[in-house]
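Q: For a teaching handout, I want to show students what a protein-ligand complex looks like in token form. Below are the inputs, and the small molecule is 2-acetamido-2-deoxy-beta-D-glucopyranose. Please produce the holo structure.
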Amino acid sequence: MNFMRKQIATSLVIVIFLLSTVFARNILQILSENEDGICTSMVETQGYGCEEHKVTTDDGYILSLQRIPKGISGKAATNPPVLLQHGLLMDGITWLLNPTDESLAFILADNGYDVWIANTRGTKYSQGHSSLTPQDPAYWEWSWDELVNFDLPATFKYVHDQTGQKLHYVGHSLGTLIAFAAISEHKLLDMLRSAALLSPIAYLGQIKSPLAKSASQNFIAEDLYWLGIHEFDPRGEAVVKLLEKICQDPGNNCSDLMNSFTGPNCCVNSSRTDIFLEHEPQATATKNMVHIAQMTRKGTIEKFDYGNDEENNKHYGQPNPPQYIMSNIPNNIPLFLGYGGADYLSDVNDVKTLLDKLQNHNPDKLVLQYREDYAHADFVFGTNAKEIVYNPIMAFFKLN
Ligand SMILES: *[C@@H]1O[C@H](CO)[C@@H](O)[C@H](O)[C@H]1NC(C)=O
Ligand SMILES: *[C@@H]1O[C@H](CO)[C@@H](O)[C@H](O)[C@H]1NC(C)=O
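A: Here is the structure, written as tokens, with 2-acetamido-2-deoxy-beta-D-glucopyranose included.
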């Protein structure tokens, strides 16, 4: 009897022990998930409050969003929400990498804006999906058309629902392309207050980056796609090998990859490269890279080209991909375009092509800001970007 009781007691202890380890593991998992988030690693460390949010797109991608609802003073935001959308091969950390008095997200929060930071599907903190994992090739079966159709509308609607207010938008690079495409199709308009678009990209026909040009002319992304490499991971073996090949071409100087791709950035603090490389670059879909390569070869802004009449017919009901028509952007939407003379990706001549399409835009609703010495990365990482770009953006927001 005594022996049995002892056994039961022992079993109970074991069960409780097992339960508690499972429980503890769950708690640890929750803690580490939070610890792993952008709020914990990049925002709270600077003394700012931060909220992690999740939004699921209509095609099942689960995206993380960070909200900085107050400035460093702790005073609640009095200005409208601002959504920050990063560019290609980057994530939301783009807006948080510099010291707080140089990074747009913190500057906006300190100026009373309710700041929301988007993270595109496939980046480190937006790898969830309702039925797929990043190991499934189907997970990477998208290009920026899907960001226009799914990521951007879901993110806008989420922030709009949470705040009950229309949004200001700030996009960089690919974050401008998807906004141009969306508003040219009259999406988002009922939720959008104004858009500030830095290193604007609608046309890529004049791109100066020797590396990007060489990659697109040699159909590098297409090769990867047909090899079955659907995730374009800039740190992965396949992409690194290709880069090495491109860099052996005597016309390409790869001694400074960032500048070879983005242009001679005047004002990025090179002693912060290590911090940058800790967080970036991020993966994207190879199909997305193919779509961008198509743009540089054709000089058009249109949907993904499946490469033959039959496939295009299947997707679009016409033999050629439909164009995004920039002149369909409503003339009274407040737009701020910041572009730089040294930008290898958002080339001045391509920006001129875009401005030509916007020639009927209400002149009171179109602010152009040109900076001769700025290249692509200066707009987000420039040590002087606050004076040159962010203060003018906040002045523009005040008017709209
Ligand atoms: C490559 O660029 C670096 C600086 O960015 C320069 O010092 C070097 O001389 C260049 N090499 C060639 C072969 O042009
Ligand atoms: C560049 O970054 C380093 C290290 O973070 C810092 O000590 C230095 O003051 C920065 N320089 C400028 C001009 O911001």
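A: Two things your students might notice: Confidence is low (pLDDT under 50) at residues 12-34. The pocket of 2-acetamido-2-deoxy-beta-D-glucopyranose (ligand 1) is lined by residues 253, 255-256 (CB under 6 Å).
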